[in-house]
């Protein structure tokens, strides 16, 4: 047992390696408080200011993005409105062009009809003039032939123009009645 007693006394005299000495605890506590005060007074305000700046910058960027999105939506609405107006205007222009085309076609038809009527009237007038000229020419030729034939049948020459013309006119009148 004496051995056990010596071991116990030695154990009480030797410090525990897990528990630091009292002067280490005091100096460590003092340095901890100094570092805590420096962090609290210097580093924490700077960190807070930097975080506030970042937060403000992020909020500003979000506001700018919201404003840009709002402007983009307004621009899209404006573009859509202008596109609708352009389509409406294009439809009106197409409709006006169709109406103008119909008017032009109608005017061209009227002009063509008038020109055709004028040409037809001129042709009828020319035909009538040529018919009259042919009638006069045939009348004189038929008259001459009739006088020659009558002179051959009668055996004498019909030289009296007034009489010859009266005979030819009577002959042609008889032919017209025969039709």
From TrEMBL:
Coiled-coil regions listed in the entry: 58-96
Locations listed in the record: Cell membrane
A Pfam family of this chain: ATP-synt_B
Membrane topology: Single-pass membrane protein
Keyword Transmembrane: yes
InterPro entries listed in its UniProt record: ATP_synth_B-like_membr_sf (IPR028987), ATP_synth_b/b'su_bac/chlpt (IPR002146), ATP_synth_F0_bsu_bac (IPR005864), ATP_synthase_B_chain (IPR050059)
Broad class of the protein's primary localization: membrane
Keywords annotated in UniProt: ATP synthesis, Cell membrane, CF(0), Coiled coil, Hydrogen ion transport, Ion transport, Membrane, Transmembrane, Transmembrane helix, Transport
Transmembrane domains' residue ranges: 25-44
SUPFAM superfamilies from the UniProt entry: F1F0 ATP synthase subunit B, membrane domain
Function: F(1)F(0) ATP synthase produces ATP from ADP in the presence of a proton or sodium gradient. F-type ATPases consist of two structural domains, F(1) containing the extramembraneous catalytic core and F(0) containing the membrane proton channel, linked together by a central stalk and a peripheral stalk. During catalysis, ATP synthesis in the catalytic domain of F(1) is coupled via a rotary mechanism of the central stalk subunits to proton translocation. Component of the F(0) channel, it forms part of the peripheral stalk, linking F(1) to F(0).
HAMAP family documented for this protein: ATP_synth_b_bprime
Subunit structure: F-type ATPases have 2 components, F(1) - the catalytic core - and F(0) - the membrane proton channel. F(1) has five subunits: alpha(3), beta(3), gamma(1), delta(1), epsilon(1). F(0) has three main subunits: a(1), b(2) and c(10-14). The alpha and beta chains form an alternating ring which encloses part of the gamma chain. F(1) is attached to F(0) by a central stalk formed by the gamma and epsilon chains, while a peripheral stalk is formed by the delta and b chains.
Family affiliation: Belongs to the ATPase B chain family.
Entry protein name: ATP synthase subunit b
Species name: Microbacterium bandirmense
Gene giving rise to this polypeptide: atpF
């Amino acid at each position: 047992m004496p051995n056990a007693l010596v071991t116990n006394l030695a154990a009480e005299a030797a410090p525990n390696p897990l528990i630091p000495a009292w002067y280490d605890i005091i100096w460590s506590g003092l340095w901890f408080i100094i570092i805590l005060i420096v962090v609290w007074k210097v580093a924490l305000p700077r960190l807070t200011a930097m975080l506030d700046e970042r937060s403000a910058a992020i909020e500003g960027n979000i506001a700018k993005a919201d404003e840009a999105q709002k402007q983009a939506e307004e621009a899209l609405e404006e573009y859509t409105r202008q596109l609708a107006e352009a389509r409406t205007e294009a439809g009106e222009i197409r409709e006006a062009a169709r109406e103008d085309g119909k008017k032009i076609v109608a005017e061209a038809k009227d002009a063509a009809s008038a020109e055709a009527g004028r040409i037809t009237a001129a042709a009828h007038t020319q035909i009538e003039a040529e018919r009259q000229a042919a009638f006069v020419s045939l009348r004189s030729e038929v008259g001459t032939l009739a006088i020659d034939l009558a002179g051959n049948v009668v055996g004498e020459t019909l030289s009296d123009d007034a009489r010859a013309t009266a005979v030819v006119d009577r002959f042609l009148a008889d032919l017209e009645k025969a039709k």
